[in-house]
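User: Hey, quick favor. My workstation is busy. Could you predict this chain's structure for me?
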Amino acid sequence: MENSEMEDVPSADMNTYIATMEGFGKRGNLKKAEEVLDKMRIEYDPTLEPFHTILSLWKKSGDWNSPEKAELLLKEMIGNEENAPSPTTDTFSAVMECFNRNSHRSKSHLVPGKLEDLVGIMRDLSDNGNDDVNPHDRSIVNEQIKSLSKSKNKNAALQAEELLVGMIERFQVSNDEREKASASCYINTINVWRNSKTAESAKRAIALLKLLQDAYDTELKAGRDGTNLKPDNRVYNAVMNVVSRSRAKDKATQAQSLLDQLQSLHDSSNDSDFAPNLKSYNYVISACAFSRGNENECKETMRLMIETFNKMRNSEIQTIHPNPVSFGLFLKGCGNLIDDEKTKQTVVENLFRKCCRDGCVSDFVLDALMEATSTPFVETLLGTSVDEDGIQIPEEWTRNNK
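Assistant: No problem, here it is.
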């Protein structure tokens, strides 16, 4: 809408205002959506819905200024300024999500502290009798956990675990479903361990998976719906990602064991939520590719990587066939695990030929190819020179590069 269209808005009811805000939001015109809210606040005593609508638009916008806007609006709501309604748990959750989603990279490490400040405000409101604000709500704690994935604090993963354990212990006392940890809370906690890249991180991630599995089994045995605690492929993938990035000496076999467990769950239940997907297999390839060890250990890891890769290629399930990431990781594995140059070149050439036939050549694949072998070998393999202008390859080789 142009300014002339905006003049028609004041005569509308509140639902029309909200629909107009959403329309501007879909068109990426947040300034106009904000103007609609301002007009509404002059004409009405608005409910929470339009305020939550603008917060939702801000958090989806990708605008680095949206966290500050959201925090300013929250302060107005806390102070009941200019016809602003009092905030609820959902209001605080939306503001926190704005910070988690849209904070500039240079400020993302400050988000955990900002969210802790907001939780402190929630505690004060709750202690003063505001029953609409619960600082222990699952959505609030989950946002706190997510913020720690960008923290520079070396103890961030332990802090995330403390928040999760706190949720579990509080629920045992309160029995309030709003405070009950979900599988998403476990996934976000596991994801914080991803940044640690230590041997300990793999152990911790696997322990969290076991904790979730026990909680899920307890729900089922009690005859309750355990859907929100299901340790599905999202959870297993998160754990395998941590394992693949860790410094655990046996991370390749750990990742393979997790993949086998997931496949076993799917086979026994026929539940698609437990079906391994392309990410599941790629995490095993990654764990193999970046493993270290003596000659025999490297040979065994190479064997496991080849076995996993062939299983992907030969699968009847099209969606788990190797993609450019799979080929690139395998090439990196060749560079890391094979010492003998002649053997390495033979394996690399065979793999790259398959990659070309499958149309999976990408920049990631070409970079991995260069890292794994020598420039003269790559030039011979490609039949062209490698220079500063990049590598020219047939379009057919990249047809499935997504």
